[in-house]
Amino acid sequence: MHPKILQILKTFEKINSIPRCSKHEEKLSIWLQEWSRSRGFEVKADSLNNVLIRVTPTKNYENSPTVILQGHMDMVCEKCKGLKHDFFKDPIRCVYDGDWLRGDGISLGADNGIALAIGLVLAETGKKGEIEHPPLELLFTVDEETGFTGARGLEAGFCEGKLLLNMDSEDEGVFITGCAGGQNLLITLPIEWEQFDCEKENLFGFFKISVEGLVGGHSGVEIHRQRANGIRLLTRALVWLRNRIGAESIRLVQLSGGSVHNAIPNFAEAFVALDKRKTARSEEIVSNLWKTFQAEYAKTDTNLVLNLTEVDGRTDFKKVGCMALKKKFTFGRVFSAGTEERLIELIQELPHGVYRMSNTIPGLVETSNNLAAVRTVENEVKILLSQRSSITSKLAEITWDIEALAKLVGARIEYEKYYPAWEPNLELGLLSNCKQIYTGTFGKEPKVTIVHAGLECGLIGSKFRDIEMISFGPTIKDPHSPAERIFIPSIERVWIFLENLLKSYR
Fold this sequence. Notes:
Alpha-Beta Plaits, alpha+beta, 9-stranded antiparallel β-sheet, Aminopeptidase
């Protein structure tokens, strides 16, 4: 192993000791600034907490073009259901498993903390004269995962380089030269309530139906893998129960699932009032349906669990961001029959997964939608969806289709966090040089493609139009999920490639 890889991993572990859920990167931003000043680097931060670290060139590279190494500070904070981990306080424990590094039942944050670690070690190594490089700018942005807030808010002149290396891709040996644009939609369905005193009648019990143990994953780069969506499975379970025991015997009280727009939902749960006389039959239905789900997703979600359990009717666990807040209430109302019908039908009809494959790049997803999250909030149900497409007109098409469905059931639509596509340019000098250096270093050509995911390059390119960009990185599997892991040997290959690439700009 290259001696610098251990230093990169130690730096990454330090980064993982600092809370950095999306929109909560303040502590990491401060730490990066303090780290830079303590080592004599010029550093600045803007009002959003984006950080830029300038690294002076080594000898004979003073007149070379400035190269920007770019990554984002925040991470998707996902954990296995029931795991006691507070992302706002607890450090992420890194588990070494052979050639792989993973979290302990939680997302690892290699997306994109590993870019920060590589950049910091590169700066230190250059300062010590151990490698040669041109002027460098380390650009670390905030809130990439939930809205590209940092990249969106970059001001003119914050960075000066014209060659940008985005290190937020997840397959070593692959150079990304374009990405999908995206649009989030928030559907709000009003709830009509009915009074329902199950304790007085003593016929109904309070039950929870839950779907757990799903793999989830990145809603862009893994949307084509056809992994289970917890919200869709939970809705199917509700439909099966309603059809087999009668809609009057099971009444919906609360529905929730998923967490963020860019993660495939790996859990969902519903609280219902269930006729106790139908308990045995309901348990049988759920058990049989669980077997059906297991058969359907035997290749993708081997730990899938569907449960029906009786619970305390006066306790509700409400998920807010990464935290589960316990809220007491007196159970006395259910969704009206009309609201229940509209909600279930809407979720059944909303698209999830691949919408259209590319006609020009074999195997590439062109357009997709992620049915990302559902929350019952006061007198409304909110449904979050995320559409992606490399073609602007197709992004508009799927968004309009979803909007039409929502309007049919009387729901309200809000458009959120549009970001542009990064259109590929295969004639760039940066790409040509990267291909030549990679081939000369490893004896094989890299793969050049575009990706069905949002990258900050789209927004950065729209702000700095004369900049050349490419995206690459070490191999990361199952990002945005508790199964996230990084292949350690691929970090070494990225480091060696970077050494040779920067040296070439003399």
